[in-house]
Amino acid sequence: MSTRELTAATFEETVTGEGIVLVDFWAEWCGPCKQFGPVFEAAAEANPDIVFGKVDTEAEQQLAGQAGISSIPTLMLFRDGILLFNQAGALPPQALGDVIRQARELDMDEVRRQAGAAQQAAEGGEIGLDDFAAAHATGAYVLDVREDHEFTAGHVPGAVHVPMNDVPGRLADLPADEPFFVICASGSRSRQVVDYLRGQGLSAFNVTEGTGGWAQRGWPLER
């Protein structure tokens, strides 16, 4: 099966469908993207039951921004609508094959059970990195409450910066009618902020492993 071009109009419908969906975020000017392109195409031919989508980040800049793309190529893998893999960099054929094999071998009942447990945690205002990454990929609002020097050293793409002590005076700037996510370095300070915000009636969620956990996954940071 050949690859298909994805746009802002087709991305969400595609990645939330049943089965495995791989998405390659690329651009024509990107050398590593051109190197990875044939690898991605070959994998598509070898796995006709999998959807292989490509997003041209130049043509779909808004979509790339919503997905938190700051380095290309970036590869995302979804299965049954759940984001399982999100990594920047061109993978060699064997590594891409390993990612696909591992996705095929997953016990999705167990994955969904874990997702259910994560949902329970979310009801208490906590959200794990994988669920946060999935929300972030669809353009969720992210509030980074670290200090200035921490934020400039590296932050989750698209995060809005309001230092912890400034939050009470900036409530009017925060989303009042939709859930949003609060992040710090490790989840400690953001937990305090979330408790405060929920007390103000806002639908805030604490990213439990923080920016440190995001970086440890190898996911991109903006500076």
Provide key terms for this protein.
Oxidized Rhodanese, domain 1; 5-stranded mixed β-sheet; 5-stranded parallel β-sheet
Describe the structure.
This protein is an alpha/beta fold and 223 residues long. It has two domains: 4-106, 3-Layer(aba) Sandwich (Glutaredoxin), CATH 3.40.30.10; 125-216, Rhodanese-like domain (Oxidized Rhodanese, domain 1, 3-Layer(aba) Sandwich). It has nine helices and ten strands. The chain has a five-stranded mixed β-sheet. Strands 6-10-9-7-8 form a five-stranded parallel β-sheet. It is globular and about 55 Å long. 35% of the residues are buried. The mean pLDDT is 92.
What is the structural class?
alpha/beta
Bin the strand percentage.
15-25%
Number of strands: 10
> What's the alpha carbon Rg, rounded to whole Å?
18 Å
Sequence stretches where pLDDT stays below 50 over 5 or more residues: none
CATH superfamily name of the largest domain? Glutaredoxin
Number of domains: 2
What's the overall average pLDDT, rounded?
92
Instruction: Please give the CATH class of the largest domain.
Output: Alpha Beta
Q: What assembly state would you assign to the polypeptide chains in this entry?
A: single chain
| First-last Cα distance | 38 Å
Please give the share of residues in helix: 40-55%
**Main pleated sheet:** 5 strands, mixed
Silhouette: globular
Adjacency order of strands in the biggest sheet: 1-3-2-4-5
Helix run count = 9
